[in-house]
Design goal:
Blueprint: H1 2-21, H2 24-46, H3 55-81, E1 92-95, H4 103-106, E2 119-120, H5 124-133, E3 139-144, H6 150-163, E4 171-176, H7 188-199, H8 202-206, H9 210-216, E5 220-225, H10 232-245, E6 252-257, H11 258-267, E7 275-279, H12 284-294, H13 304-312, H14 317-321, H15 325-336, H16 343-346, H17 354-372, H18 391-404, E8 410-411, H19 422-451, H20 456-480, H21 506-533, H22 540-572, H23 583-609, H24 612-623, H25 625-628, H26 632-643, H27 647-675, H28 679-686, H29 688-692, H30 700-710, E9 713-716, E10 719-722, H31 725-736
Parallel strand pairs: 3-6, 3-7, 4-5, 5-6
Antiparallel strand pairs: 1-2, 1-7, 8-10, 9-10
Helix pairs in contact: 1-2, 1-21, 2-21, 2-22, 2-24, 3-6, 5-6, 7-9, 10-11, 12-13, 15-17, 18-31, 19-20, 19-27, 21-22, 22-23, 22-24, 22-26, 23-27
Length: 737
């Protein structure tokens, strides 16, 4: 209700000013116009769309929807990674007692069964059964060396837990440890809530409190992947906070490299009541059997010698490479899928040791994937890219990203500008903002005067001077002031064009934002259009008729901003059928959030000129003419004489109108980037330097999406990661060398 009172106060102030100055008609019309617009927004803000559903029904619906969405999300990701093609690798996991809590806290007392926990990656269902039956609490720490299949097991556990989930059991969510920050989230529960809100916006369409309810009622089982990628301080802090936040029955799954987790627990503590399993090296026989299954019948004879060496030389070069799922995947991708002759795998003169063989496989990986997985423009096959890329270019671009991450695994596209040199960022931002500003100022102040008879030299120098002013101003705004000098932008916002059907408070929020836009726009309109029209000059009759135009423009300005605020609020309201956020979806959301206010602002001059409020005001004004304006016909003639447009005026207006719309949109773009959504704008502009220097492709997001389809990258929500940390380190080392 406070927005109504504020709007009525503005209307009353305008009326008082009109009466005190003696311009009764203008004051009355201004008051009526403001009240009409305010009342329409107030009615919208107080109108309930639908009665809210009971809390239990909302929570049950949210659990059902989240379970289905998460299952579909990770089934697609598992298919993209080929985790079950032809079947999971037989990695064995053994219980690691020195890094686990006391056995009495971890295991249930089961007669005749030892306090231990083992499993295999090709029989995850049995691991889930034991997780529920043998452990007092569903808490598991997964350890292993690089490339040993820790993340793969986490994804497998998530899918089986969802498939076997009972209605009262929590829903597993996989989280990247890099998305947690002790300086951002005081408690892990706040982190869980934030990721649910950002990655699964459809839940907020049911009720905006659903994410917090799910976490508070222990209906979320967090699976934290990549604990070892945090620095030592954050590892210890996260361990302490996790133990402090765990309730009596809360579950938790955490993956990490063995050495990093061991160092962290010596300085902090183990995860309370959690079992710990460690990946065992693949045996040469298991690797040979897996590769044999991947072979077509016509190629088994060609691979007979390689498979025989694996069986009979378990300590050889080939067997050493095949001790991890990463090594087996490399051999399958580079040799089996591409149809290469495996003779080089067993020839010691070609690759003398295991390290040389592994380096050869990494070298051949990108050409093999691009060569065997041909583009599919339809996108129906998640394992085939949309576009064709040169292997050498793809390797150079991925190597740049590997170095840019500085040891982190997460490729947040909105953080890529942080790797651009500061000088390059300032130069690009100055050109992007300063040149259009300079051209507009020069055109508006000089070129038009040249076209309409002024001296050409003055116009040219005015354009040059305006361009310099634009460059300097943009450099100062985007380079020196604190908000724009941040090297890491905020995570992209959310926007959706889908239909909203389930949020009973949407109309209220939209109405409140429209009122805010109205209250901001009316004072701006008074100042801006008043200086343009200047109705106070001349006789009282011209004052009155000039006031009509002034009031129409003023209310039109308020309506334009109310429209922008209302539409943006509506689009940022979560939709009921939204999918989980992916990197491509977050990129589109940020782009739409940046450009939508600009498009609406560019249309604002039309709303300012053509709005129904102006028509109502004119009607009211004409009804009061005989009472307040002496000699109305003479006054109208004077007004028309002053504000009439001849052919030359129309020509000038038509030439300037597009530029006025552009500059209006540019102002809004600057405000959006400065105070709100900046991720897409900074990414598109500042990465041009990396494109020009060959470090990134022109279509960076399309390349990242295709790299994911090829199997070089993986996704966790809106974040890309390298398929394997060892691949990332190899590419980074290759670029430095």
């Amino acid at each position: 209700m406070r927005w109504l009172f504020a709007t009525l106060a503005i209307a009353a102030l305008m009326a008082v000013i009109g009466v005190v100055r003696g311009y009764y008609a203008f004051g009355s019309a201004a008051a009526v116009g403001s009240i009409l617009v305010a009342l329409s927004a107030v009615i919208l803000s107080r109108y309930p769309v639908a009665a809210p559903r009971p809390r239990d029904q909302q929570l049950s619906e949210a659990l059902s929807e989240l379970s289905g969405v998460v299952a579909a999300q990770w089934q697609r990701e598992a298919a993209s990674r080929g985790l079950a093609d032809p079947h999971p690798m037989p990695v064995c996991w053994s219980y690691t007692e020195p890094l686990a809590d006391h056995g009495a806290l971890v295991f249930r007392a089961t007669p005749g069964r030892a306090a231990s926990f083992e499993g295999r990656s090709d029989d995850v269902q049995n691991m889930v059964v034991r997780l529920r039956a043998d452990l007092q609490r569903p808490r598991l720490v997964i350890l292993g060396e690089p490339g040993s299949g820790k993340t793969t097991l986490a994804v497998q556990l998530l899918l089986v837990l969802l498939a076997k989930r009972e209605p009262t059991e929590p829903i597993p969510l996989l989280l990247s440890a890099n998305s947690w920050g002790s300086n951002v989230f005081r408690e892990p529960r706040d982190w869980y809530i934030d990721r649910i809100v950002r990655d699964y916006p459809t839940l907020s369409a049911i009720d905006k409190t659903i994410p917090r309810q799910l976490v508070d009622q222990n209906m979320i089982l967090p699976i934290i992947d990549g604990f070892d990628e945090l620095d030592a301080h954050h590892q210890r802090t996260l361990l302490r906070k996790l133990n402090q936040s765990l309730g009596p029955d809360d579950g938790l799954v955490l993956t990490s490299r063995t050495a990093e987790y061991a160092n962290a627990v010596t300085r902090a503590d183990v995860i309370t009541a959690a079992a710990v399993v460690t990946a065992q090296p693949l045996s040469a026989a298991a690797a040979a059997d897996y590769l044999d299954v991947c072979l077509s019948p016509t190629r088994r004879r060609l691979w007979a010698a390689a498979l025989e060496e694996l069986h009979h030389t378990p300590e050889g070069r080939l067997a050493t490479v095949c001790r991890t799922p990463l090594g087996v995947w490399l051999i399958r991708t580079v040799y089996i899928e591409s149809g290469r002759d495996p003779a080089g795998l067993i020839d010691p003169t070609v690759h003398p040791d295991a390290e040389a063989l592994r380096a050869h496989l990494f070298d051949a990986l990108i050409p093999a994937l691009i060569g065997t997985r041909r583009p599919d423009a339809s996108g129906a096959n998640p394992a085939r890219p949309h576009h064709e890329w040169e292997p050498e270019h793809a390797r150079r671009w991925l190597s740049y990203l590997a170095v840019h991450l500085r040891g982190r695994s997460d490729i947040r596209w909105w953080d890529i500008p942080a790797g651009i040199p500061r000088t390059a960022r300032l130069t690009i931002m100055a050109l992007v903002i300063g040149v259009p500003v300079g051209v507009y100022l020069g055109f508006n102040n000089a070129l038009l005067t040249t076209l309409f008879g002024e001296r050409h030299r003055i116009g040219v120098w005015a354009m040059v001077f305006s361009g310099i002013c634009g460059l300097v101003g943009a450099t100062l705004v985007f380079g020196l002031l604190p908000p724009a000098s941040r090297t890491r932008s905020l995570e992209p916002g959310y926007v959706s064009f889908r239909k909203r059907t389930r949020d009973p408070d949407a109309a209220r929020r939209i109405g409140n934002q429209m009122l805010k836009g109205l209250l901001v726009g009316i004072p701006l309109g008074l100042a801006f259009t008043g200086g343009m029209i200047q109705p106070w000059k001349g006789s009282s009759s011209r004052w009155a008729y000039g006031g009509i135009a002034w009031l129409g423009y003023t209310i039109g300005t308020g309506m334009a901003l109310a429209l922008i605020f209302g539409v943006v609020t509506w689009l940022r309201t979560p939709a009921a059928d939204d999918r989980p956020r992916t990197p491509a979806a977050s990129y589109r959301d940020s782009r739409n959030l940046t450009l939508l206010p600009v498009v609406l602002a560019a249309l604002a001059p039309i709303v300012m000129l053509l709005n129904p409020v102006s028509v109502v005001v004119v009607w009211i004004q004409n009804g009061l003419i005989s009472q307040f304006i002496p000699n109305p016909v003479d006054g109208l003639d004077e007004f028309r004489a002053v504000y009439s447009f001849g052919p030359e005026d129309w020509r000038r207006t038509l030439i300037k109108a597009p530029f006025n719309c552009i500059v209006f949109g540019g102002v809004i773009l600057t405000l959006v980037v400065w105070f709100g959504e900046r991720a897409w704008f900074l990414f598109v502009t500042t990465t041009r330097w990396a494109v020009l220097t060959g470090k990134l492709p022109r279509r960076t997001m399309a390349f990242l999406d295709d790299a994911h389809r090829l199997g070089l990258l993986r996704t966790v929500g809106p974040i890309y990661q390298f398929r394997h940390a060892e691949l990332q380190r190899y590419l980074a080392r290759d670029l430095r060398n």
